[in-house]
Design goal:
By secondary structure, the chain is of the alpha/beta class. The protein is built from 17 helices and 21 strands. It is 31% helix and 18% strand. It is globular, with a radius of gyration of 21 Å.
C-alpha cells in the first residue's frame, strides 16, 4: 500500500468499533444542519487562472460572493442588541464586512517547508504564539518529509501567490468599545503565550494565503483558519501519551491542531454525519502522515451516546458543539435555509447540553472537557454551561481569563460575561469561570468563539 495510506481507506477497513452494545440514538437533522464551519479559510478563496502581468505570472485570487440573509440579520439584531448592548453595533459592523475578515495560517509540523515562516513575515504576518525550541520536529526528533518533498513543497509557496485586500494606508484602529476592553485587560500584567510546536501566523490586515488543493499522498503545508478557533485546543492542554476525544470533529481543523500540539496515545475523531465524516477523513489524510493512523481514529457515533458507551475513558474531551454559526448563518445561501435555521435554533441548547453531559461522562476523574461554539448566543454558551453544572456536581469550571485572554488580548477582543465593556471590571470570578468569548471587531475580526473548560473532580 502507498506509504501515505489514506485515512479514508483506513477508516473503512479497520475503523474502531465503539460500544456495540450501546443503543444507537436516532439522529436528528440538527447535527448536520448546524455543523457548518466558519473557522476554516480554504473555502473562502478560489484560485483563478494565471494571467500575464508585466512578464510575470501571478496567481490572482477571488472570493465567493456572499449574499446577506436579511431574515437572519433581523433576528440577530433583535437578539444581540439585547444580549450585547452597545457592543453589538461594532460586532455587527465586523460581521457584515467579510472582505475585511482575517485568517490565520497554521503551519503543519508534519510537513517541512523551511521558508514558510520567512515568507509570512515578509508579508507582515507575525506569530500568534511564542515558540520554544524543537517546534519543527516530531516527538521522536525526526522530520517526516524527505528532502525531495521539501523542495516540491517550497515551490508552491512564492510570495507573489499571496492575496492582499485594498486597505487604508494606516495602522488598524480599534473602536472605543475595544479600547475600553483593552484598558481593562491592562489592569493586570500581561504575558506572552508560548507553545513548543503549535505555529500560527496572523496579520493585522485581511492578507490571505491561497488554499492548497487536496492531493492524495502529499501533505499540506498549512491550514487556513480563523485564529480564534485555536483557543479551544489551547485550553485543552493536550500532552503526549494522553487519550483524547474530539466529540464533534468535522471538518477536522481542531483535530489537526491537536496533533500540532502533542502526540497523544489516541485521538478519536467522532462525526455521525457520513458526508461530514468523509470531509473529516480527507482533512486528516491531507495533514497527518500515515504513521499516525494507529493513534488517530475516526468514529461514527452519535455524540450523545459516548457517555453511556465509554465511561471515564479519556483524559481530555473537546466538544466543539453544533451551534448557530453566526458568520455562516448571516450568509445563508437563500432565505428558505435561513428561515429553517432560525426555526430549529431553539432546539440547539438541548442538543448542546446532551453533548456536554456525554463528554463529562466519558472523561476520567481529574480529566478536562472543553466546550466551544462559534456563536455569540448566551443560550448556547453560558446558559448551557450553567445547566450542566447544576446537573453534574462533579463538574468544576476553570477560569481561562489569565491563562488565555490576558496573554492574547493584543490580538483578540475578549469578554467573560457575554455583555458589553462595562461588565468586564466588576464581573465575578464565578462568572468568568463560565467561559470566555472572543467577539469580532473592525480590524480585529477574529471570532466569534466561546470557550469554557470544565474539570471532572476526582
Amino acid at each position: 500500500m502507498n506509504k501515505y495510506m489514506s485515512y479514508t481507506h483506513w477508516f473503512n477497513t479497520t475503523r474502531r468499533t465503539i460500544c456495540l452494545k450501546c443503543p444507537k440514538l436516532s439522529r436528528t437533522s440538527l447535527w448536520r444542519c448546524f455543523s457548518s464551519s466558519c473557522h476554516t479559510g480554504p473555502e473562502v478563496l478560489r484560485p483563478k487562472k494565471r494571467e500575464e502581468a508585466s512578464g510575470n505570472q501571478v496567481t490572482k485570487m477571488h472570493r465567493k460572493q456572499r449574499t446577506l440573509c436579511q431574515q437572519v440579520l433581523e433576528h440577530f439584531d433583535q437578539q444581540y442588541s439585547q444580549e450585547l448592548g452597545d457592543l453589538w453595533e461594532s460586532v455587527r459592523s465586523a460581521l457584515l464586512d467579510p472582505q475585511a475578515w482575517q485568517y490565520g495560517v497554521m503551519i503543519n509540523r508534519f510537513s517541512a517547508v523551511t521558508d514558510l515562516p520567512q515568507i509570512l513575515q515578509s508579508q507582515g504576518f507575525s506569530s500568534l504564539l511564542q515558540q520554544t525550541d524543537g517546534c519543527e520536529l516530531l516527538a521522536n526528533g525526526q522530520s517526516v518529509m524527505s528532502s525531495s518533498q521539501k523542495h516540491a513543497g517550497d515551490s508552491l509557496l512564492k510570495s507573489h501567490y499571496i492575496s492582499r485586500d485594498p486597505i487604508i494606508d494606516s495602522q488598524p484602529q480599534s473602536c472605543s468599545t475595544t479600547q475600553a476592553l483593552d484598558r481593562d485587560l491592562q489592569l493586570e500584567p500581561s504575558c506572552s503565550l508560548t507553545h513548543p510546536s503549535l505555529r500560527c501566523y496572523i496579520n493585522p490586515y485581511p492578507v490571505r494565503f491561497p488554499s492548497q488543493a487536496h492531493r492524495p499522498g502529499q501533505l499540506k503545508q498549512y491550514y487556513l483558519l480563523n485564529a480564534a478557533s485555536l483557543l479551544p485546543v489551547l485550553a485543552l492542554q493536550v500532552r503526549d501519551g494522553e487519550k483524547v476525544l474530539d466529540l464533534c470533529a468535522a471538518p477536522g481543523g481542531k483535530a489537526v491542531a491537536i496533533m500540532q500540539c502533542a502526540t497523544p496515545a489516541l485521538l478519536c475523531c467522532n462525526e455521525p454525519d457520513p458526508h461530514r465524516r468523509a470531509w473529516l477523513a480527507k482533512t486528516l489524510e491531507s495533514f497527518l502522515p500515515s504513521s499516525l493512523s494507529g493513534r488517530v481514529t475516526v468514529s461514527a457515533q452519535d455524540g450523545r451516546s459516548f457517555g453511556q458507551c465509554e465511561v471515564a475513558v479519556y483524559d481530555k474531551v473537546l466538544v466543539d458543539a453544533p451551534c448557530s454559526n453566526d458568520r455562516s448563518w448571516l450568509y445563508s445561501p437563500d432565505s428558505q435555509q435561513g428561515a429553517q435555521r432560525l426555526k430549529e435554533k431553539t432546539a440547539l441548547p438541548a442538543l448542546q447540553v446532551q453533548l456536554l453531559r456525554s463528554a463529562l461522562s466519558t472523561v476520567r476523574p481529574g480529566g478536562v472537557v472543553v466546550y466551544s461554539t462559534c456563536t455569540l448566543s448566551r443560550s448556547e454558551n453560558y446558559a448551557v454551561i450553567e445547566t450542566v453544572l447544576n446537573d453534574c456536581p462533579e463538574a468544576e469550571p476553570e477560569d481561562l481569563w489569565k491563562e488565555l485572554a490576558l496573554p492574547l488580548s493584543e490580538h483578540f477582543s475578549f469578554t467573560h460575561s457575554g455583555g458589553g465593556a462595562e461588565t468586564l471590571i466588576n464581573t465575578s470570578s464565578y462568572r468568568s469561570r463560565l467561559g470566555i468569548l472572543v467577539f469580532p471587531q473592525p480590524s480585529r475580526t477574529w471570532g466569534p468563539m466561546f470557550v469554557c473548560r470544565i474539570r471532572r473532580r476526582k
